[in-house]
Amino acid sequence: MPDSAFGEIRDLPLFAAMTDANFAALVRGAYVQTFPAQIELIAEGDPSDFLHIVLSGSVDLFASWNGRETSLATVRPISTFILAATVRDAPYLMSARTLEKSRIALIPSQDVRAVFDIDANFARAVVTELAQCYRSVVKAQKDLKLRTSLERLANYLLRQQRRAGGAVSFELEHEKRRLASVLGMTPENLSRAFKGLQPYGLAVDGARVTITDQAELLRFARPSPLIDDAAT
Amino acid sequence: MPDSAFGEIRDLPLFAAMTDANFAALVRGAYVQTFPAQIELIAEGDPSDFLHIVLSGSVDLFASWNGRETSLATVRPISTFILAATVRDAPYLMSARTLEKSRIALIPSQDVRAVFDIDANFARAVVTELAQCYRSVVKAQKDLKLRTSLERLANYLLRQQRRAGGAVSFELEHEKRRLASVLGMTPENLSRAFKGLQPYGLAVDGARVTITDQAELLRFARPSPLIDDAAT
DNA sequence: ACGTGGCCTTGACATTTATCAATCGGAGGG
DNA sequence: CCCTCCGATTGATAAATGTCAAGGCCACGT
Predict the structure, then answer these.
(1) Is the CB of residue B132 inside 7 Å of nucleic acid strand D?
(2) Are B156 and B121 part of one and the same domain?
(3) B20 and B78, same structural domain?
(4) Do A57 and A137 share a domain, yes or no?
(5) Which of residues 185-214 of B touch A (CB under 8 A)?
(6) pLDDT at residue A231 greater than cutoff 80
(7) A78 prior amide bond cis, ω within 30
(8) E strands along chain B, which residues?
(9) What is the C-alpha to C-alpha distance for residues B182 and B60, in angstroms, rounded to an integer?
(10) Does the nearest atom of strand D lie within 7 Å of A166's Cβ?
(11) What local confidence, expressed as pLDDT, does residue A137 receive?
(12) What DSSP state is assigned to residue B62?
């Protein structure tokens, strides 16, 4: 294991507070690999053999049932996924695939659990990370159950605008078909939803979105920090 | 603080492995209180002052937005709620109200965080609990996005049947209006959904549900351990 | 330059779900 | 015992969302 490859994750909140020795134990059996786009990294139901960390690129977490499929989240650098399955030594609840060419670090789950048992700082960091993940899913749940598809799209766009630095105009970062799945609707409906937001100050051209009337869109979307703020 | 009042939570997985001294520190500022039904214990957006533990009765976790409201989960004895908010010292994402007369233990959040910082066993227990909570929400998310309301009801009933010991006939444990909210539909639709399941081996009389054709209902519901098993 | 394939869009239609209004029926109080 | 209230149900209707089929657009490779 070249140490250099793990330098970039050493400072992650998850690993920052642990001892060098324990970090070394963690990465001893780990490796970093580059995957092309559209590769399925894990499948739901599989045993959780590795904790995954996205170093570059992006990963789609999705789930299937009865022939249907839905995207649940996108993982961006630098963060982990399926931490909960690793901790509980339980099967993955979601599948994961690369959205683009991505570098992924894989740490054997048993090593994570072993170090977790002996390094209190690491255990605390895991708690913080998990609590964060939990709250994200709860927010997604509220988004889904309390809002219509038009409202979800409007709030999604406002969140994206913030991610893009607040500019009036920005590019969508996902394929629209996947965005539709994330938002819990069909691609056809997403097209109509974009049109449906035009009266509320939105213009779309391909992947470029322009918020022509911020106040009006805000009035329609009614974003709430308890649903839309990533930080809290 | 009468020690007796906390004996029943001492053996919870969350507290079992911690030292007596730390447990004492945890319950020093804690208290137990009995609330009548329909009391709002916490409101979403409030700072997380206390970790709550349901000792008896039951508690509804719900959320509101823009005049709408939805139930997200039910907490039964003996378990905690809003652990994630406590850990992160962040505002509650959900409101909570008693569904019936309930005894609740309240532990000051700052004490939880303080003990969490010095007791590795407690920290590990919190991780396990949080990972469990996280996986529950993910399952709920999959249920919501991958299934129609009829399918959600069918699978809910099969889960309830298992909870009730597997008997062919059992009582619903929630008001139907609340069950509708949990399942993400209106009460009117829930009524129709019950009727819609009759051809698949279901009979309903008030709160009593009878599965007249288990095989047929299973064939329709197609339960999956990755959505419907509480344990995994 | 020209196909070609994939994704997006559009329209027509079907299905699902919500809304509104009215009624039913059981639990509890006078 | 009857009345009243509240939740559950039902029917009619509207709105939201999904499905199917067709066509447009753009990027890609030959």
Answers:
(1) no
(2) no
(3) yes
(4) yes
(5) none
(6) yes
(7) yes
(8) 31-35, 40-42, 50-56, 59-65, 68-75, 79-81, 95-98, 102-108, 169-171, 202-205, 208-211
(9) 10
(10) no
(11) 98
(12) E
Asked whether B227 and B143 are in contact (CB, 8 A), the reply is yes
Enclosing domain of residue A15: 3-144
Picking from A144, A169, A191, the residue at the C-terminal end of a domain is A144
Which position has the token pair 């000051």? B108
Q: What is the mean pLDDT of residues A201-216?
A: 97
- A175 and A203 fall within a common domain: yes
**Where among B101, B127, B144 does a domain terminate?**
B144
- A124 shares a domain with A21: yes
Residue in the block written with tokens 């979105």: A209
CATH classification at residue A138 = 2.60.120.10
Measured between beta carbons, the chain A residues lying within 8 angstroms of B142 are 63, 65, 70, 72, 93
Number of domains in chain B: 2
pLDDT tens column, B30-81: 999 999 999 999 999 999 999 999 999 999 999 999 999 999 999 999 999 9
Residue B22 phi/psi, 5-degree rounding, is: -70, -35
B50-56 and B59-65 as β-strands: parallel, antiparallel, unpaired? unpaired
Nearest to B34 by CA among B6, B8, B12, B56: B56
In this structure, the answer to whether residues A172 and A118 fall within a common structural domain is no
CA distance B111 to B109: 5
Query: Can you read off the two tokens belonging to residue A139?
Result: 């927010």
Token pair recorded at residue B24? 């004492």
A17 and A114, same structural domain? yes
Same domain for A75 and A164? no
3-state secondary structure B159-183: HHHHHCCCCCEEECCCCHHHHHHHH
**Å between A65 CA and D17 C1'?**
20
